[in-house]
Design a protein that fits this description.
Blueprint lengths: L1 E6 L8 H15 L3 E7 L6 H6 L3 E5 L11 H4 L11 H15 L3 E5 L5 H6 L6 E5 L11 E4 L18 E4 L8 H13 L7 E5 L8 H10 L8 E6 L6 H9 L4 E6 L4 H6 L3 E5 L3 H7 L4 E5 L5 H9 L4 E4 L3 H9 L3 H12 L6 H10 L3
Parallel strand pairs: 1-2, 1-4, 2-3, 4-5, 5-6, 6-7, 8-9, 8-11, 9-10, 11-12, 12-13
Helix pairs in contact: 1-14, 7-8
């Protein structure tokens, strides 16, 4: 089976779309599929990361500085400029690549792409899978995955063909296999909660340096001095050097780790996490990590609200970071245990297996 994945990472987009597509690509490769990527070379791209995992990657040029003309319909898209071109321009560049590869499946994970692009390229692929979180635009697809907790079929009424198969809800969250492997250990150690290790992960890029704001608030806090803090960032994060200098001045032992390969192990061994309401949400839930979740973008609000209602995380806005740290100071063992149990109910770590089955079944 031949599969082509169209997705991007950048300082504006973040790394989550590419990382979850890599998880799916690895699983498909284990099943014998030949997987290739198409990515635009935005500032902050992850093309080398993809290639390091031995996936052929076709590069679309970065058109930064070029005036982008979008249609009236595209103008309403959330993240419409994240594509780096109009959908028509992007499709024209992708067409010869798809003509060459002739994929059985084309997989698209991009907020800047909708039915316009998909229809334009329909003659050049067998079937189309869309990965989405927003339920805000039309798709011409055979299979759609939306791993948002609580997502309902009605949310896509009129947005996808009637015959399209929908994989909806956090049970389909695309997590790397190690999260399922560490789940039992992580849940077991939380039966007797303690608070000695704190993990901060605000996304691979964190363009607005929310990590720095969190560290500043923690530096002024009254947390026990024996707490160890681990900060995880991507190598392309623009404020990485600043955060490293800030960590050296913290009153707590604070380590900054870059492009970690053992995130599941780190999460399993942390007692509390402060993280963005993005794709790492599902990783924390799978391992039952009690979390203070910071909403950083409009598209994260729905995820955050649903977890807050389920008491699976404490949710705050960026302006409430110091208030959030105050909540951590007063958190009891019972609070930690309750958050852990509720979070663990959201995701079991087997989502990628379900998605692979759907693809192999033909959508």
């Amino acid at each position: 089976m031949k599969v082509v994945i169209r997705t991007d990472a950048s300082l504006k987009i973040g790394t989550g779309h590419v990382m979850r597509c890599l998880t799916l690509a690895e699983a498909l490769k284990k099943e014998g599929a030949d997987v290739e990527f198409i990515c635009r070379s935005h500032e902050g791209h992850l093309i080398e990361r993809i290639r390091q995992q031995v996936f052929e990657t076709y590069i679309l040029p970065d058109l930064c500085g070029t005036k982008i003309k979008v249609s009236d319909e595209e103008e309403t898209l959330y993240g419409r400029y994240w594509l780096g071109s109009s959908q028509q321009q992007d499709a024209e560049l992708c067409r010869p690549l798809l003509e060459k590869t002739k994929p059985d499946w084309l997989i698209v994970d991009h907020y800047g792409i909708d039915k316009t692009w998909q229809t334009e390229l329909a003659p050049y692929y067998g079937k189309l899978m869309v990965i989405d979180d927003l339920a805000n635009r039309r798709h011409q697809c055979d299979l759609l995955l939306d791993q948002t907790y609580g997502r309902q079929v009605e949310d896509y009424t009129g947005l996808v063909p009637q015959q399209a198969q929908l994989l909806l809800g956090s049970e389909y969250a695309l997590l790397r296999p190690e999260f399922a492997e560490w789940r039992g250990y992580s849940l077991q150690r939380r039966r007797s909660p303690e608070f000695k290790k704190l993990l901060i992960t605000m996304g691979g890029v964190d363009p607005d340096n929310i990590t720095g704001e969190v560290l500043a608030a923690l530096g002024d806090s009254a947390l026990p001095k024996e707490i160890d803090i681990n900060v995880v960032m991507g190598a392309s994060a623009p404020h990485l050097d600043y955060v490293k200098r800030q960590a050296e001045l913290m009153p707590y032992k604070t380590d900054v780790k870059v492009n970690v390969s053992n995130m599941a192990e780190m999460m399993a061994n942390t007692d509390l996490a402060i993280g963005a309401a993005g794709t790492t949400t599902w990783e924390r839930c799978c391992l039952g990590v009690p979390s203070l979740m910071v909403v950083l973008a409009a598209n994260q609000r729905e995820i955050a609200d649903s977890l807050s209602v389920s008491i699976a995380a404490i949710v705050i806005d960026r302006q409430q970071i110091r208030k959030g740290v105050t909540l951590i100071e007063s958190m009891s063992k019972n609070n930690l245990l309750s958050l852990s149990k509720n979070a663990a109910k959201i995701v079991d770590g087997r989502g990628v297996d379900h998605v692979i089955q759907a693809i192999q079944g033909g959508g």
